Amino acid sequence: MQHTTLSLRHGLLALAVMAVWGSNFVIIRLGLDQFPPFLFAGLRFTLAALPGVFFLPRPNVTWLNLAAYGVLIGAGQFGLLFLAMDGHISPGLASLVIQVQVFFTIFLSMARSGERVRGFQVVACLLAVAGIAVIAAHVNGRTTPLGLALVVLAAASWAVGNIVAREGRATNVLAYVVWGSLFSAPPLLAVSLVVDGPAAIGAALGHATLGGWAAVVWQSLGNSWFGYASWAFLLARYPSATVSPMALLVPVFGMGAAVLWLGEPMPGWKLAAAALVILGLGVSVFYPRLHGRLAAFRGAD
To answer: So what's the pLDDT on residue 6?
Structure first.
């Protein structure tokens, strides 16, 4: 039987996951100081896959599903995100903008199922779009139109990857992520070889400091292994409606970490954009639950 309220221990675990996923954007920024974006992403997924594939059983999905998920999440989501964060968008804003994947996922799911868009979903999406528009109106040297566009594309790729993962219906989420990483690393490393060249790759690998390699390890073991394993653990014990709202804290941790670690400025327009996007996400998550409770209360009357 699933509980509907997180215990203190599991609530702290969920907060730890959100802190890891949110602060991950600062780690990405630090890692990009030592590795080209596609090489950095390729190293992340190489370590996420190896040696894990030798210890975790292959998930009960087709190879095509695994390959599609790996390419969409690896080359699509993280390849584009790392490229965007390599001087085109600040970590705090990247952690916020990438969350529009929620709306891409919702609308793609509805398109595939034929379900009609509901009013609250339109309102939620408009709020988030308004937040993105505020960011677009304040592009500057730290955040460029290209960076904003790349993160939106990364969010779209993440959303398609979500649909692929949902249709795969793997029972072991961690194994699915690890085995999918086998298909994430090769295209990223191949693109790095073409774009950066062997000399630049060799120089980056040869001159990387302990901090640079720590960023790779954090990406692979902290973000992928700890994050996804813990999230799957919580989803197995609590309803999705109880666990999923915690994801709203990712941009909060992301923007907070960017301020604390990197001194990223947080002017009023950035706070307004964050409020609009998070409010939109909140409406999409909480409105169905609130509406259901109100309907049940009226029915009881």
So the answer is: 81
